[in-house]
Give the backbone structure.
Amino acid sequence: MGELIVLKLGGSVITKKSENKMEVDLENLQRLCRDIAEIQKKIKCNFVVVHGAGPFGHVLAEKYRLTEGMKGKESVKGMCETHASMEKLNAIVVEELNKAGLNAMAFQPSTGVMKNRRLISFPIESLKDLIALGITPVGYGDVLVDLETGLNILSGDHLVPYLAVKLKASRIVIATDVSGIFDGDPKRDKNAKLVKEITKENFGKIEVSGSRGVDVTGGMKRKVLELLEVASHGVTSQVVSGIKPGELKSALLGREVGTIIH
Ligand SMILES: Nc1ncnc2c1ncn2[C@@H]1O[C@H](COP(=O)(O)OP(=O)(O)OP(=O)(O)O)[C@@H](O)[C@H]1O
Ligand SMILES: [Mg+2]
């Protein structure tokens, strides 16, 4: 068995997040699926794929104010609606990965339990068994029971480092709609410069904010904080563009593109 890579496909890449439309960006998704299948053949690695939400999750989560936790019947309804919407997106991602030649299978992150926005348990053994069969498990940002707040959103950006540590992955690769992490939001500031390397030492000097689209889980800032934490467990992450053709492939082949967090 080759190395295990935990890969996040950002909702900003695979959906029409910037237009706030609950639609899949099939062109991006299919290109990325082909790239992932090609790399798996080439370097014989295993993947766990986690995809983001875009409007499929963020819009409903905002509508039902799910980040505020359990507020009664409406929250329960919102939890189910948001989960169902993410399942629809997940089914499309799994289908496209399989069409591209992988053996992909969905897993439901809502089988885990959180406490104060952090996962405290997850059925990790079943993922290990799937990976041992050469299957690519495909999960997503989901809504979970939270022992402190009743319910909560599990961001894909939290799930990715959690799985990487528990599954002893060799690295994390995150595909989003910008070419890495810049010293300011590149969508607001044209002069923002790419930061090629982030460590605990230089993080304080970088202006990282949320997302321009609707994003209830903290956008890019949360991503970097989560990835810095996982770096202390020895897992290196790379944030690259999933929109620029070839960039994800380069990262998977180990080339220094985008931002490396270690
Ligand atoms: N310093 C920064 N460098 C790069 N991007 C930044 C920075 N600050 C803010 N951003 C914003 O972060 C966005 C990417 O985060 P976002 O959460 O929207 O994407 P995603 O995680 O791929 O989507 P989803 O949450 O739906 O999975 C970029 O579009 C950019 O506008
Ligand atoms: Mg996000």
